[in-house]
Design goal:
Blueprint: H1 2-14, H2 18-25, H3 43-55, E1 60-65, E2 70-71, E3 74-75, H4 82-87, E4 93-97, H5 114-126, E5 130-134, H6 153-157, H7 164-179, E6 191-194, H8 213-230, E7 236-242, H9 248-252, E8 263-270, H10 275-299, E9 302-310, H11 318-327, E10 334-337, E11 342-343, E12 349-350, H12 361-369, E13 373-374, H13 376-380
Helix pairs in contact: 10-11, 11-12
The structure holds beta-D-mannopyranose.
Length: 386
């Protein structure tokens, strides 16, 4: 309080705008100042936004989906992480997935127990890590998976639709999960929530061919308003993300508007192997990042690569020779590598970061050592919730 009055006094005497003094003293970073979706966002949430924005001019945080739960050849070993096995350090950002929470299942669609997930989230937050959450929620109209589009699904869950009540019950379950995330002082753990991802593709029920831009925007607004205004959740940053895109116009086609989004991103995967595929990936990512950064600057949003990967990383130098060439020099906050599921049914192994004996592990260590890549130790030093 006292400090605030000193600043107020200085502001009046020196005729310096309050927000400039506040920024310099670290007092009172507010949701209004950063134009967050949630004007009542908690202090830790505002600070997370502020620090993601500050740090993006210094380096890119490395993120990994389900990092602490399992890796290639192991599951639920306390403290273990494939990233840590290879580098000695954890990622800076941790991605988690809530599919099947809506079914009251004890485990998510990939078998991760929701209780363990909450413990992993607290553990990562305690060492200063960042949390982002996606949700491959089932199709509320058909009851089938997120990958089961059916005409009319989106309108069915909007107000007046036959499944609106069901969707609200699902959002209540989501609220239950999110409101259980608390730090040691009882404060809520901020979460970058990333609903309806890859919405310019057509593989999910909320995808491009299955609803109009206006319907998607209504769904987005309804969801955010419900969580923020009805359920009073104030520890979320909202991430909007597309799949690959080729122009700003395409990127913004389904953008719900600046008042509804805090983080903007896209998902991108390399598919082909070899020099020409690498060059194509670099060019494609650079083009998309150009659009994203411009939008982030004009709209005052946080830009990020919300998912990426090269399945099984079949190129031992990919990290420094391709990925780093694609992203270096770009001021994005983080990039999230998808999950190291390991062996799946049918014998196929799914992973996007190296495990200890993988051929790209040595190159990943080089990538880790670059001054422009941030992992857990870099981020812990920055106290991003303060
Ligand atoms: C996909 C794959 C699936 C998984 C889904 C949701 O890309 O990894 O195996 O079920 O994400 O996590």
């Amino acid at each position: 309080m006292k400090k605030y009055f000193v600043i107020l006094f200085a502001s009046t005497i020196l005729n310096v705008p309050l927000n400039v003094l506040n920024a310099q003293t670290g007092v009172g970073a507010s949701a209004q100042q950063y134009k967050l979706v949630d004007p009542q966002a908690t202090k830790e949430t505002v600070n997370l936004f502020k620090n993601l924005n500050r740090l993006r001019s210094k380096g890119i945080m490395f993120a990994h989906q389900d990092d602490l739960a399992y890796g290639v050849g192991w599951k639920y070993e306390p403290g273990r992480s494939d990233i840590k096995d290879v580098t000695g350090d954890y990622p800076a950002v941790y991605g988690w997935e809530l599919g099947h929470l809506e079914l009251d299942s004890a485990v998510n669609l990939d078998g991760v127990p929701f209780g363990s997930m909450q413990k992993f989230i607290r553990e990562a937050y305690d060492r200063g890590g960042v949390i982002t959450i996606s949700w491959h929620l089932r199709n509320p109209l058909t009851g089938k998976t997120a990958w089961n589009p059916a005409p009319g699904t989106v309108t069915s869950i909007l107000p007046g639709g036959e499944k609106n009540e069901l969707y609200k019950r699902w959002l209540d379950k989501l609220t239950g999960f999110l409101s259980a995330l608390k730090g040691s002082k009882g404060e809520y753990i901020p979460v970058i929530f990333r609903p309806f991802h890859e919405l310019n593709g057509s593989w999910f029920w909320w995808g491009k061919d299955h609803c109009s831009p206006a319907e998607l925007k209504s769904l987005w607004e309804f969801t955010v308003s419900y969580l923020r205004d009805k359920k009073s959740l104030h520890h979320l940053l909202y991430a909007f993300n597309t799949d690959k895109f080729s122009s700003q116009e395409e990127y913004l086609e389904r953008y719900p508007g600046d008042a509804w989004v805090d983080v903007i991103g896209f998902d991108v995967y390399q598919r082909g192997k070899g020099d020409s595929a690498n060059r194509q990936f670099i060019a494609q990512v650079q083009n998309m990042l150009g659009v994203l950064e411009l939008l982030a600057t004009t709209k005052q949003k946080i830009p990020a690569i919300t998912e990426f990967g090269f399945g099984q990383v079949p190129d031992s130098l990919w990290w420094t020779n391709t990925l780093w060439k694609a992203v270096s020099g770009h001021k994005i906050a983080y990039m999230l590598a998808w999950r190291n599921a390991g062996a799946k049914a049918g014998g196929f192994s799914e992973f996007y970061v190296p495990y200890k004996s993988h051929a790209s592990a040595a190159n990943f260590v080089e990538f880790y050592k670059l001054p422009g890549t941030f992992f857990q130790k870099d981020i812990s030093r920055e106290s991003i919730y303060k």
